[in-house]
Amino acid sequence: MRTETVSKAEVRPRAVAVIWSGVKIWPYLFALPFILSYFTFHFYPLVYSFWLSLHDWNGIGAKTFVGLRNYVTLLTKDPLFIKSLYNTFVIMIMSVPLMILLGMVLAYLIFHLAKGRVFFQTVNFLPYITTPVAIGFIFSFMFDWQTGIVNAVLIKLGLMTEGYYWLQDPLMAQVIIALMIIWRNLGYFMAIYLAGMTAIPQDIYEAAKVDGSTGLHTFTRITLPMLKNITVFLIVTSIIGGLQLFDEPKLLYGGWSASTSGGPDNAALTVIWKFINDSFITGTRFGYGSALAYTLFVIIVLFSILSYRISAGKGEKS
């Protein structure tokens, strides 16, 4: 018999190849670009922002460590932060329940249309893909006290004798912002509810119809319970998005002078708007702005956990 001798130089490449194939490193190599970009553009800024919130820094000079002073000042000595947080919650209370209710009713009506279903879906979804800048201009012109169509219609109907300063009234400013949010997002809520109604087995509706169930009874006893998870999802995401509200109030009052930032009596000032003002516009307090951002982050996390616990508890009971 003939025996083949293998040199050490030949054994090493084979051993490396076996180890390389056993590790299955290719998935990690393909995931490496995402991991690197995540740590570079997400994780590192998140950690750096928290470290910066513990300092006093104007972006130019040296950083001064102040500990939790920025957080204490924000929560106890900054009335505008409390005002902005209050405004954000008020606007959410005005808009979120109506979006849920109107989106569900609109989806139910369109779902039972015999003709023109696609047309009405498209028409109602168009505002959602409209740019926020365009929406800001539309509502600014609609409620303008001189040339606004709202004042023109009310005067034409004899309900008013002269134009009203809608955008200079603190309460009406919040109502108009809520209307902007509802008008823009109603189509999205409608589409989500339509998808949920489509997923409901039609056998349930047919059995209810045979048993003599009316339209209202079917809607309240079958459709609403079957859409519970979708409703919870929309409520949670709406609260998270509402706490980050910025585009609508900023664009509605973006044309005003800097002294009226935040609308009349700061009624349109939201938490994100205040964060941008304190960090980049009226001042360069990056440490204070980071503390504000992290405070908002904690509030969002708390609301998310609370919503999850409520929805999980309901799911277990049902």
TrEMBL record:
Annotated localization: Cell membrane
Keyword set includes Transmembrane: yes
Residues that span the membrane, as ranges: 25-44, 89-111, 123-143, 163-183, 226-246, 286-308
Pfam families for the chain: BPD_transp_1
A GO CC annotation given for this chain: plasma membrane
Keywords: Cell membrane, Membrane, Sugar transport, Transmembrane, Transmembrane helix, Transport
Principal location class: membrane
Domain ABC transmembrane type-1: 85-307
Membrane topology qualifier: Multi-pass membrane protein
Entries under PANTHER family matching the protein: ABC TRANSPORTER PERMEASE PROTEIN, INNER MEMBRANE ABC TRANSPORTER PERMEASE PROTEIN YCJO
Entry's family note: Belongs to the binding-protein-dependent transport system permease family.
Name recorded for this polypeptide: ABC-type sugar transport system permease subunit
Organism of this sequence: Paenibacillus phyllosphaerae
